[in-house]
Task: structure prediction
Amino acid sequence: MASTAPLVVRASPLRSLQKELFGSRLDGLISIALLAALLAAGLGFFRWALFQAQWAVLSANSTLFAVGRYPIEQQWRLWLLTSLLALATGLSWGLLRAFPGSGAVRALWPRNDRWAAAILVLLALWRPLALNLTLAIQVRWWGIAGLMLLARWVAGRFGPAIPQACRRLIPLLWPLLYLVGMVLISGGLGLVQVPPSEWGGLLLTVLMATFAILLCFPLGVLLALGRRSELPLLRWGSVIYIEFIRGAPLITLLFLGQNILGFLLPGGLTPDRVWRAAWVLTFFAAAYVAEAVRSGLVAVPAGQMEAARSLGLPVPLALVHVVLPQAIRVALPATVGQFISLLQDTTLLSLIGLLDLLGTARTVMANPMFLGKNAEVYLVLAILFWTCCAALGLGSRALETRLNPHSPSAPQASPAHPP
Result:
């Protein structure tokens, strides 16, 4: 007689919420007190935001917060870069839904995607109107949001029709776009040069964070491998570097990078102050990423390397194809946590005279016209940083799910054809 699965009765969401919040008399009292406190805080915040806060400081300085002192006549390059980023984001988003992985149901617009699209449309409609921007800028923001959603629909609808050879080249779109973005921002190839001293605001913060994140990861992997190397010079060199960087505060290293490089290098070879700070951030984060990757390498059983060597793989190929993928999967949460800390550490750039997002905010608040408007400015800065950090966290969790071999959405290897 075939066994049947036990019948599982699921409670309604309202009943589950009642059980969680009011399971006992003490739980009910605590829940009522916390809900009352949250309600009072929320009402006070909305009363201040709607009737007392003066958001004119943001509308009057929106361009300064976004790009700093970037020349107005050259800002079309930043709009072009934003459009390219929206197009690449929509294509990548749609292709992820077109190929959800083994075991997942393909849906053109899942529920989470519908929510994300609704929030994107709401922001595109609300942000320009809230900041009292001109009609031309409003149309640009609406066009960028529409371009992203159109690319998302096209990639999700026609993604399976793309040949596999072409799909493998799509990830190369992002590094190529990064290089194009650097050319558009700084100039070159026929474009007018814009010195880094004129970059600022959110543009400088995102640029410094992405530059350091992209370079500190491979450097951290190399340092982690060097620390576990059997060559004494390589091993002790990596250990000394990691321990020195971890033992020095970042602000001290930033001041050293700004001052010592000017004495050590000839005048013609000394990089700009912005790039000096970017390299200091990169080398600082690489030491912490190295420790995260080393923890992943320790978690991989030694038998994995032995099994790969027994199959005839040389040590470099065994590391690249067998050991490192498992180690990086283990170290991914700690590594992304370091990336988030690195993004937050960019606020220290204002202490060395760079007009990043926080430095621009301090400059605006020092204006006699906007004295006393600290709460409005700091609130917007907190929301911007939280949005960027939340995006990194969500991307990390999604990547962990896809890389988890036991997850139903993880990509599965195709079965081998019989001889």
Observations:
- The first helix runs from residue 13 to 21.
- The chain has a mean pLDDT of 82.
- The two ends are 40 Å apart (CA to CA).
- The CA atoms of residues 121 and 323 lie 43 Å apart.
